[in-house]
Amino acid sequence: MTSKTIKGARLMNLRLVATIVGLAVSVLLSAIPAPALAGKTQNVVLIVSDGLRWQEIFTGADPTLLNEKEGGSWLGEPELRKRYWREDVDARRALLFPFLWGTVAKQGQIYGNQLKGSVAHVTNGKAFSYPGYNEMSTGYPNDAIDSNAFGPNPNASVFEWLNKFDEFHGQVAVYGTWDAYQRIFNESRSGLVIQTGWTLPPKAHETPRNALLRELYETTTRFDDEDVGNSFLQIPLLDYVKASHPRVLFVGYGETDNWAHQGRYDLVLDSAHRMDYFVHQLWDTMQAMPQYHGTTTFIITTDHGRGGGLTEWKEHGIEQKGSENIWIAVLGPDTAPLGERTHVAPVTQAQIAATVAAFVGKDYRHDAPKAAAPIAGVLSGARD
Fold first, then answer.
1. Nearest 5°: CA angle at 252, between 248 and 253?
2. DSSP 231-244
3. How far apart, in whole angstroms, are the C-alpha atoms of residue 333 and residue 307?
4. Residue 117, Cβ neighbours under 10 Å: how many?
5. 202, 146 in Cβ contact below 8 A?
6. 37 close to 362: Cβ distance less than 8 angstroms
7. C-alpha distances in angstroms, 34 versus 282, 290, 332?
8. Residue 12 to residue 7: CA distance in whole angstroms
9. In this predicted model, what pLDDT tens digit does every residue of 351-361 receive, in sequence order?
10. Distance from C-alpha of 39 to C-alpha of 247, rounded to nearest angstrom
């Protein structure tokens, strides 16, 4: 044999060995049992605060933006610092997010503090809203979704999938400030209960409370025709929960992203703080109801991150470095109280869909094999 022939034979052998090893690994992986499915959880709520950075979640207010020049604040810096600044980082983030750090961090888990070796990120390569919502709700990215104006989502979400089961049918809902959720969750195909934007569903017999809310919707000067304010969403959301008792619920709050795009860091902080209050209010409302008490899990996250520094915090996307980084928090009866996760394997936005299903005892990946695996560390019995 020539040296070239010998090398060629060795290369073929190496490729054969690699193929055999690869097949063996695939067989072994397929033999690993799926993470344990539902324990005590019977209801699950996925909550998103649009475009809220991991930096604010884990370190609180950014001192370089607490001013008019870089932060665009209309509120004087002394007052802004009084509201949201403390020297100690733990005190500072708890001041901004009292429920997240006072309850979720003590009774659940939070991923995404890159300063402590915890990474949560998107996999869609876009780092803006529609691709993010598609990824978290379907379990995988779709490269064709390249605009927030993209039409009805061709991919069925885990919410649409769950709605086909008898025990969940008619009890899966989407409540969000952004009217694009109608396309993201494909309202015409999915059959989900969907309340978004500035449109309230008609009611045959309106109470005075309903009539007042409708008047506010119709007469308030709109900052954005596509996006109602968070507080306007909260009222019909709580009414729906109390009256209809959904089993699976998506809630989307949009103000944190809107004010960042406007360059108003003072209002980013205000809306982030109030979002924390709204989540707390929803949690307390549900825990006070026998249908939800001790059997409900909240997953709280964001659809994308943002850029950093003195200017790029206003925007997000592949051109703004760091926009792919997010955070994920989980609170519920099956999630071990491990608090802020540090030095753990990365988690992704794509894992959220299967995690939602796993909490209520369903194997989403059985019917959606492209979906990422659930986040094992938050499921029943996991204490990694």
1. 145
2. HHHHHHHHHHHHHH
3. 35
4. 12
5. no
6. yes
7. 31, 31, 20
8. 9
9. 999 999 999 99
10. 15
The distance between the two most distant Cα atoms of the chain, rounded to a whole number of Å, is: 93
Q: Which of 61, 39, 11 is nearest to 335 (CA)?
A: 39
Band (pLDDT 50/70/90 cuts) for residue 56 is: very high
Q: Is pLDDT of 366 > 90?
A: yes
pLDDT higher than threshold 90 for residue 258: yes
Beta bridge partners of 227: 178
134-165 pLDDT, tens digit each:
999 999 999 999 999 999 999 999 999 999 99
Structure tokens at 287: 């825990």
Amino acid 381: pLDDT: 65
Listed residue (89, 33, 26, 78) closest to 56, CA to CA: 89
Q: Which of 170, 93, 103, 177 is nearest to 133 (CA)?
A: 177
Strand spans (E) along 206-350: 248-253, 296-301, 328-331, 339-340, 347-348
Q: What residue type is assigned to position 30 of the chain?
A: S
CA dihedral 315, 319, 322, 326 (to 10 degrees): 60
Closest CA to 305 of 286, 284, 321, 289: 321
Note whether 38 and 380 are within 8 A (CB).
Answer: yes
d(CA 52, CA 58): 11
**How does the average pLDDT of the chain come out, rounded?**
90
Q: What was the pLDDT predicted at 203?
A: 80
Give residue-wise pLDDT tens across range 217-236. Answer: 999 999 889 999 999 999 99
Q: Does pLDDT of 24 surpass 50?
A: no
Q: Angle between the 351-359 and 129-138 helix axes, to the nearest 10 degrees?
A: 40
Among 7-16, 103-112, 165-174, the minimum mean pLDDT is found in 7-16
pLDDT of residue 2: 36
Q: 3-class DSSP state for residue 275?
A: helix
Specify burial of residue 336 (Cβ count, 10 A radius: 0-12, 13-18, 19+). middle
**Assigned token pair, 86:** 């403390």
